[in-house]
Amino acid sequence: MDDRKKKILQAVIDEYINTAEPVSSGALVKKYGLDYSSATVRNELAELESNGYLDKTHTSSGRVPSEKGYRFYVDELMKDDNVSLEEIKYIQEKLSTKINEIEDLTKITTSTISEITHYTTIAIGPRPETQIIEEIKFVLLGSRMLMVVIMTDNGLVKETIIKYEKDITQSQVETLNNLFNSKLKGKPLNKIDKPMEEYILSEINYSIDVIKPIIEQINKVIEQEEQVYYEGTGKSFDLPEFKSLEIAKNFVNVLDTKELMLEMLNSGVAKDINVYIGDENEQKELKDFSIVTFKHTVGDKELGTIGIIGPKRMNYSKVISVMKYISKKLNNNLQTNQSQENETKDTK
Amino acid sequence: MDDRKKKILQAVIDEYINTAEPVSSGALVKKYGLDYSSATVRNELAELESNGYLDKTHTSSGRVPSEKGYRFYVDELMKDDNVSLEEIKYIQEKLSTKINEIEDLTKITTSTISEITHYTTIAIGPRPETQIIEEIKFVLLGSRMLMVVIMTDNGLVKETIIKYEKDITQSQVETLNNLFNSKLKGKPLNKIDKPMEEYILSEINYSIDVIKPIIEQINKVIEQEEQVYYEGTGKSFDLPEFKSLEIAKNFVNVLDTKELMLEMLNSGVAKDINVYIGDENEQKELKDFSIVTFKHTVGDKELGTIGIIGPKRMNYSKVISVMKYISKKLNNNLQTNQSQENETKDTK
DNA sequence: TATTAGCACTGTTACTTGTGGAGTGCTAAC
DNA sequence: GTTAGCACTCCACAAGTAACAGTGCTAATA
Question: Model-level pTM?
Fold first, then answer.
């Protein structure tokens, strides 16, 4: 593909992302100051179409990017969109909130991204198996409530409560502390499986009534980590593609299906930013949408995955720039936070 | 209004709720086995219309219920819809899960209602000010993480974590335990206000760096209790009223505005079940929808508010019956649970 | 050989017109 | 008080038309 073709293709896609209308040869020449006539552009467009980068909605319509076109655009043409000063300020302000629990981090990041990009944003926390249990602590609340606190290596904390019908003694709590720590400390935060459960039960002479609920609750809390966070569901509805009821309905249904969202967010390769355009999505329900995800990490530790979902005609350049910026910012904040335990004040 | 009018009005509304089409005099006679002719029915319909219970979409169309009509229907005509055996079974199964945290309770109830009624269901937890602090407990995790656990009188637990830059000693923890308990135990779970904050600070000689984050976090956890839970957002989209893009968009936007949902759920009078039809909603954004809410309580303790939102043409009778049933069931479960601390096994 | 002006052609959109049908309101008869 | 009968209204849908935006192709041009 020669330079002129690239230039024209880029212009078509930029224009289409802006207007959502099929792009005509005339408009390209006029708006993008191309120094050849519309007829020449038409010839190029015809060729780009026959190479699969563009489509037409009907014989005499302007051109519309194909999925192959978008893909080429994302991979080769798109230029980085600068994050504006106001946006930077806004992001820094929101991310400088002191964050102790992973849910908060995820929520704040999600809402920030949604507000800046104006797209619907979804997120999940870290997959349990990527976290290492640093300590388990049992705390007695009153005489019949036992709280289990699990601390993981990324400095985050999960807790759950078990209610008993009989009193629990402080010495039982000590034993539990020792037992569970000796068994689980340093292990990944996986559900406690049958063999491990048997083993724990065999090691302790308490009634099964005491241990069983603990294991159940721990497993529950580990599983439920897979919660999906949403922000800005309504935002997409102002986009012209949502004029089609079919698409709008599809979109809502997709968001409403948690399993689908989980699968989608978890399927990202370990690249900084993943872009899936239409049919590139593994899930056929997502074929009309594009998705951009990134795993946010501190060092080699995964803290969750955040994704944007929108029409294929998405402002990829904006979205990706914002994600890159936020990803970097998060990393900085959390790394200083973790090494120095300082309150993160953004140095102007 | 005489009996025949009532009968006809009820038939119109029942039919409209089923079909979503304007109801004609002929259809009424045929489907509802009325023993007078369509002409008579037409006369009655005309009168019901002039009294404001019915509307027409155009001069020669069938009748459609007005808001006044729906209101009369809900208040006087509607007969209780029996909850079917399968539904009862399903509800009992879902509600018999052992529940320790209020979030779980709310989530499970919300999803149960949504699944049975096929409407979008929203919920919030108990308003903080209705809960009484029973105890506050500080627990040291490692040497620089402090966990604050707040137990309330409805047996539910809230916790939060504070990270420090310096070590915290066990004796400090003791002091905090004493201080906060003596000040807050027995008080409603309100945010800690300035005077109280001053008072606590004056009572203790720790650096402000220790106390301040505690108060901030406690306040944060109290505020965030006002979380909104959703289930079945997509369900409504199959209803014919959502053919109108206007309405569909409105609906999504309404759900997307948390403040609106909070306001709406909190505005319920202390009646068992509140029904708001269209313009009866205080929030003008909700004028095209009907909302049915109930506060779920154990004894006189509020545990949260759950609401269904759907088109004005809602199956009120079904929705209200399900809510009544679930409300009763919740109450039973929790009361036995609380008085005996027994696992709630449903007695067939 | 690459570019471009010119023009026929195509499909879209918006507007009009016409027709069948569903349902009402009214009148007059029962 | 009820009902058969009928004129009337309005909608939904189909078909036709006109304006127009934009293309593809041809032939002329640099």
Answer: 0.87
